[in-house]
Amino acid sequence: QVQLVESGGGLVQPGGSLRLSCAASGSTFSLARLTWYRQAPGKERELVASISSVYVTNYADSVKGRFTISRVNSEKRVYLQMNTLKPDDTAVYFCNLATTIGGNRDYWGQGTQVTVSS
After folding, report:
1. Phi, psi of 30 (to 5 degrees)
2. DSSP state string for 30-90
3. Helices (H) and strands (E) in the chain, counts
4. Is the CB of residue 55 less than 8 Å from the CB of residue 42?
5. What is the pLDDT of residue 26?
6. Contact at 8 Å (CB) between 18 and 9?
7. Are 82 and 17 within 8 A, CB to CB?
8. CA 105 to CA 84: how far, in whole Å?
9. For 86-110, what is each residue's pLDDT tens digit?
10. From the centroid of its chain, how far is CA 83?
11. Residue 88's pLDDT is what?
């Protein structure tokens, strides 16, 4: 019912910026919680940022002040603006949509690679 597709990843130098985008299908977008996760090689998946249906945001301490999550419900899209990137930000970034409509369910995108290197 719900499909998510991430885009915007790539190679960037330390101190640079990227904007990730996640496009969703389905009818539950406006009532869903949207979250960006990331997973680096050899590391567990971690929460990066989330935004609720009423636009309350939450950030990992490691990205607070550098990353901004936003949503545009009319576009069924969630963004992650990443500034002042560091090598430790290198990971595959995943978009997650969580909804209670039709049952408590989570949907995941395929991920997009972000590499921060000089």
Report:
1. -65, -20
2. GGSEEEEEEE-TTS--EEEEEE-TT--EEE-TTTTTTEEEEEEGGGTEEEEEE-S--GGG-
3. 0, 11
4. no
5. 86
6. yes
7. yes
8. 34
9. 999 999 999 999 998 888 999 999 9
10. 14
11. 97
List own/partner pairs for 67-70 with CB under 8 A and 24 or more apart. Answer: 69/34, 69/36
25-71 tens-digit pLDDT: 988 899 999 999 999 999 999 999 999 999 999 999 999 999 999 99
Rg of the chain over Cα atoms, rounded to whole angstroms, equals 14
The whole-number pLDDT of residue 45 equals 97
Find the distance separating the first CA and the last CA of the chain, reported in whole Å. Answer: 41
3-state secondary structure of 29: helix
Give the alpha-carbon dihedral of 48, 3, 71, 29, to 10 degrees. Answer: -120
- Using CB atoms within 10 Å of the CB of residue 105, give its burial: 0 to 12 exposed, 13 to 18 middle, 19+ buried: middle
The residue behind tokens 């576009």 is 75
What is the torsional sign of CA 70, 18, 38, 24?
positive
Q: Answer yes or no: are the C-beta atoms of 29 and 43 closer than 8 Å.
A: no
